Amino acid sequence: MQTSDVIIIGGGVVGSAIARELTRYRLKVTVLEKESDVCTQTSGRNTGMLHAGFLYKTGSLKARCCVEGNREFDQVARELDVPFKRTGKLIVGFTEEHRQRLLAMIERGRANGVPGMELIDRKRMDEIDPSAGGNFAIYCPTSGILDPFIYTIALAENAVKNGARYHLYTEVTGHDRLEDGRHVLHTGKGDFACRWVINSAGLHSAEISEMLGIPGYVIQPVKGEYFVLDKKAGAFAKIPVYPAPTERNTFDTHATPTVDGNVLVGPNSFNVTDGEDYSVRQVGMDGLQESGARMFKHMRREYYIRTFAGARPKRIDPATGEIQDFLIECRDDVPGVINLVGIESPGLTSALPIARRVVGLLREREELLPNPDFDPVRKGIVRFHEASREEQARLVAADPDYGEIVCRCETVTRAEIRQAIHNPLGVSTVNGIKVRTRASMGRCQGGYCETRITAMIREELGRAVTDVRLTNGDSAMFTGYVKGGEQA
Amino acid sequence: MKRTFTCIVCPNGCEIDAEYEGSRVISVTGNLCPKGKTYVTQELVDPRRTIATSMRVDGGELPLASVRLTRPIPKDRIFDVMAEINRHSLTAPVAIGDVAVPDILGLGSDVIVTKNVARA
Amino acid sequence: MMHEQAVIVGGGPAGLAAALRLREKGVKDILILEREHKPGGILRQCIHDGFGLMRFGESLSGPEYAQRFIDRVEEAGIRCITDCTVLDITHDKLVTAVSRNLGLLQIQADAVLLTMGCRERTRGALATPGTRPAGVYTAGVAQSYINLQNVMVGREIVILGSGDIGLIMARRLTLEGAHVKGVYEVQPYPSGLPRNIEQCLNDYHIPLHLSHTVVDIRGRERLTSVVVAQCDERFRPIPGTEEEIPCDTLILSVGLIPENELSLAAGVELDARTRGAFVDEHYQTGVPGIFAAGNVLHVHDLVDFVSLEAEALADSAAEYLLCGSLPECSLEVKAGSNVGHVIPQRFSATRSFTLSLRVRQPLKDVSIVVRQGEKEVLRKKMRKALPAEMIQLPIKAEKLIPGVELEVSAE
Predict the structure, then answer these.
(1) Fewest CB atoms less than 10 Å from the CB: which of A16, A204, A374, A411?
(2) Domain C1-120+255-326, what fold?
(3) Is C195 close to B54, i.e. CB distance below 8 A?
(4) Which C-chain residues 349-378 have CB contacts (< 8 A) with chain B?
(5) What 3-state DSSP class applies to B53?
(6) Which CATH number fits domain A389-467: 1.10.490.10, 1.10.238.10, 1.10.10.1100, 3.10.580.10?
(7) Are C10 and C295 in contact (CB under 8 A)?
C-alpha cells in the first residue's frame, strides 16, 4: 500500500493549487484524479475569467479569495508561465433598472476591495470596445482572461516538479481508518494510505465528504453551455462583455475573448442532476444565439467552431435551496480531513488563496517544515506561433521538429506536440495534447492535425492502435488495424 | 419491363430509362453516349464492378499501398475478392502498376498497385 | 531572401498542373511549396478509381492520377520543397515558409499561385447537439486513417451528409468489414454525384435517407448512438420523427470549405458564396500577381476540372510574368436565377474564357443561359442539372459585347 502524508482527492485547479502549495513543505503529497487529465471537468469547462470580486457578498470567502487571487495573478502567471491578459471587463446595461443594479454592484465592489470600478457612457464604451452591446456600462479594470487548462496543468506540473505524485484514472471508491487514525482510500488502482485527506472533488465533493464522515452537504450542479467562435470573430472582441446582473445577482450569457484570440459566448445556466453530462442541447444553442447577439454584435454562424458545456458545483442549503459560500473546514470530530465543498466560480481565480487557507488549517494542527528544494517556477512549452520570426528561425535550427507544422490553424509544430506527449503528468490522450498545445482547437477542429497527433502518440509512447484515447475513460479512437495486425 | 439505371461509367451519371425483356434491351433513353446502352445490357446480364482497397506493405515508408482491379469482376464476388486480397501482403518497394495478385480467384482481373511505396 | 518568378502554394493536383503549364510557357523559376512529405495533395488518400476519365481517358485511382503529374514535374526539373508549410503571404508577394530541413524561408515572388485546396466542414460549424465522444470523424479524416495509416475508425457506422467523400467512405468502410447503417442527408436531394449513390450505396444496400439529420450525439467516452430526425423544407427537425440508432462511429460529410487563411493574409478579397477569392477571367485575385485555382477557389466535383483550371491559371500567370500585367477585367459576372455561384466573377469582354457554375437545386430539362443585357451569349440545354455537378461553359470572345456585364441563369 502506498503511503503519503497528504492525499488530495481531485486534481482540478483547486486540488492542484493545494498540491503545489503543500510541496513548499516537507510532505509526501499524492493527488488522486479519476479522469485522464487534470482539467477535463469544471476546471477546464468555464470562461477562463480572472474575476475581480465585485459579485460576491462582502466578507464571504468567495469575495476574499477572489480579490486576493486577482491581485496576485500577474506574479502567478509569470511564475507558472500561464497565458494571461488583464483586459478589464464591461458589464453593460440597457435600462434604468440595470443602471441601479450596476451602481449597487460598484458599491459592493468597493466594499470588497475591488479597485477602479466606474460607470461609463456609450462614448467611453466605444473607445474601449465598439463591439459591445448596451447603452452604458461598468468598466472594471482588474478583470482578466487566462487559459484555464494551462493554469491547472501548470499548478500540477509545478507540484510534480516539487515532489507531488499524480495518479490519473484513479477514482476513490471507499474510505477506512486504520487503528492509528490514518486513512485508507480504496481506488480501482489499489489502496492508498495517508495521515491527511483533502477533499477537493468538485462536483463530487458532497459524496466524498460523506464518505470521509461528514454527511449533510448538498451540491447542486449548475450547467452552462457555450459557443466557441473563430479567431476571425476574436478580432472584434477586445474585452469581456457581461450583461447587467439579473435580479438574483447572477450573470446571463456573456461574450468573452479568450487569451488565445477566440470568443466564448455563454454560458446559460440551469440546474442538472448529473454534473458530468456535458452534452449540449439544441434549445441551449438556440438561446445562446439570441442572448449572445445582444452582448456581441458579431455572433454569426460562420464563426462557430465548437460548443461545450461545464457545470458549477454549487453548495446549497438543503432547506432553502439558497446558494452557499465556499466551504473550507477542518473539524475536530473528523480528524485528518480538510473538507472543501461547493468550490465553484470564482474557483479559478481563488485557487491559490483557497490552497493557502488549506495549508493554514494543516499548519494549525501540525508543524510544517519548509521544503528547501521548492522551486515556484514552471516553464511551459515554447510556442512557435507566439515567437518572432528571428526566434522561430532559432527554434528550428535548434530543433528541426519546430520546422514541422502539425496544426495548420493554430500553427503548432511537431516539437510542441512531442513535448506535450511527454508531459510531466503522464497524460496521453488526444485532448490532453490539445489543451497543452492548442493543436486542433482551430477552425478545422483537427481535420488536418488529428491524424498526425494520434500517429505521434502511437510512435512516441509505443501505444497499440486500440490504446489511443480521445479523453476520459475508454474513449478509444480506433477499433484496430485495417489490414493485418490484431483487431480489437 | 421498365427500369431506371444510373450509369456509373463516367461522372455524367446519366439516368437511363430502359425497357427490356429478360436480359434483352429493347430501348434506352437518357444516355448521353453509347456506353450507356452497353452498361445497361451488362447490368441486366452480369453486373460487374471494379474495387479499390489497400494492402499491407512490409518494410515500406508507408504501412499501406493502395491497389485496384484491372478489370471489373462480378458484383456478387466483391467480398470474396476482398477476402482474397486481405490474405496477401506486399514487401517494399512497390511501384504503380506492379501486379500484386494476378488473375484474382481466376476471375480474369489482376490486383495492381496504385501507389509507389519506397523502402523505409 | 530568395527570389522566384512563381511560388506555388500547395503541391496537390492544382499546383502540379499549374507548375507544368508554367514551365511549358517558358517560366524558369518555379517553386512549389508543399506541406506534406510528398506532393499529390488529397489524392494520396483517394484510392478509389474514377479519376482521369476526361484527362487520360481511363479510370485511375487518386494516387495514380497524381503520380502522372508528379513524374512530369520531376522530369521538368521543377523544384518542389516538401515538408514545408507557408506561414504568411503579404500583399507584396513576400512568402514566409518553414521547413524542418531548411528552417525559415523568405521568398520574394513575382507571382503567387494559390492552390491550397479545401478543408472539411466540421461538427462545430453545424452546431450538432449532444456529447463529445470518440468516434465522430469527418469523412476525409476517416479516409486518411483508413487509407494512409491503416487504422480502422469503427464498426457500426452512421454517415451524416451525402457528399461524395461520405459516399466513397460508405463503400470503403463496408469493403473493410464495417456495417454502414445509413446515410442521412438534410436536403431533399443528395449532395454527391448520382454515380456514387449508385456504386457506393445502392450496390451495398446502404440506405440513403433524404430530408433527415442528426439531432443528438450520445455517449460519454465512445459514441453509443445518434438520434436522427426527419426535417421540414427549412431543414428543421420535425418533432416526433426522432429515431435512436446505436452506432460506434459517426462520419460527417457535410461540405468542403476552400482553405483561404493565407489568401486573407495577403489581402485577397473572398466571395461569400464560394468562400474562395474573387477572380477575373485570368484567375487573378484582387491582388495583382496573386492567382487562385482549384478547390481553394471553389470546390470542384472532379479533379480533371481542377487540373484544367490550374492550367488556364498558369497560362495567364505566364503572361503576367512576361508582360508585367494582364488586361483589366472590370465587368462583373453575375449569378442569376437558380445559379449558386460563378467563376470568374469578373471579365474583360475581350478574351475567351471558361465559366464555371453550380445550380442551386436539382433541375430537369433546363437551359443554362448566359446574357449580356438582353443579348443571349450562350444557351446550353441540359436534361438535368444537379448542385453536385459543376457546369463549365466556354465563352467565346467574339460573342461578347464590350463593356456590358454578364449574367448566368438556369431557366
Answers:
(1) A374
(2) FAD/NAD(P)-binding domain (3.50.50)
(3) no
(4) none
(5) strand
(6) 1.10.10.1100
(7) no
Task: Give the other-Cβ count within 10 Å of A355's Cβ.
Answer: 28
- What is the ipTM for the molecules in this complex? 0.95
What length is written for chain B? Answer: 120
| Chain C residues within an 8 Å CB radius of A306 | 123-124
Q: Which helix (H) or strand (E) holds C183?
A: strand C179-185
Chain A residue closest in CA terms to C124: A306
* Residue B84, SS3 per DSSP: helix
Classify A84-145+220-316 by CATH class: alpha beta
Cell numbers that stand for B60 in this block = 515500406
Architecture of domain C329-411: Sandwich (2.60)
Q: Does C55 touch chain B (CB under 8 A)?
A: no
- What is the value of pTM for the model shown? 0.96
* CA–CA gap between residue A300 and residue A131 (Å, rounded): 13
Angstroms from C352 CA to nearest CA on chain A:
35
Cell numbers for C132: 463529445
SS3 content of chain C, % helix, strand, coil (to 5): 25, 35, 40
Q: Do C383 and B11 touch (CB under 8 A)?
A: no
B112 Cα to chain A: minimum distance (Å): 17
Query: Cβ neighbours of residue A462 under 8 Å, at least 6 residues apart?
Result: none
Per the CB < 8 Å rule, is B82 touching C195? no
Is A486 within 8 Å of chain B by CB? no
Which of left, alpha, beta for A427 (phi over 0: left; psi -120 to 50: alpha)? Answer: beta
Location of C-alpha cell 477585367: C329
Note whether A159 and A6 are within 8 A (CB). no
Q: Which residues contact A386 (CB under 8 A, 6 or more apart)?
A: none
Facing residue for A473 by CB, picked from C83, C146, C220: C220
Residues of A in contact with C87 (CB under 8 A): 405, 411
Mean pLDDT in runs of 10 for chain A (488 residues)? Answer: 96 98 98 97 96 96 98 98 97 94 96 97 94 92 98 98 98 97 97 98 98 98 96 90 82 89 94 96 94 87 93 96 97 97 97 98 97 98 97 97 96 98 97 96 91 97 96 96 68
Residue of C nearest to A395 (CA): C103
> Which fold does the domain B52-113 belong to in CATH?
CPE0013-like fold (3.10.530)
Chain C residues close to B82, C-beta within 8 Å: 175-176
Contact residues on chain B for C67, CB-CB shorter than 8 A = 96, 115-116
b or e along C211-249 (b: 16 or more beta carbons within 10 Å of the residue's beta carbon)? bbbbbbbbbbbbbbbbbbbbbeeeeebeeeeeeebebbb
Q: Is A204 a catalytic residue?
A: no
A483 lies within 8 A of chain B by CB? yes
Chain C residues in contact with B36 (beta carbon < 8 A): none
CA nearest neighbour of A151 among A244, A85, A207, A76: A76
Chosen from B56, B58, B113 to mutate, greatest number of chain A CBs within 10 A: B56
Contact B64 C59 (CB under 8 A): no
CB C69 within 8 A of CB C45: no
**Are the C-beta atoms of A386 and A261 separated by less than 8 Å?**
no
pLDDT at residue A397, as a whole number: 97
Q: Where are the domains of chain B?
A: 2-45, 52-113
Is C125 touching A (CB cutoff 8 A)? yes
Residue of chain C whose alpha carbon sits nearest to that of B9: C195
User: What digits encode the pLDDT tens for the residues B60-91?
Assistant: 999 999 999 999 999 999 999 999 999 999 99
b/e for C136-149, b at 16 or more Cβ within 10 A? bbbbbbbbbbbbbb
Question: What per-residue confidence (pLDDT) applies to A485?
Answer: 57
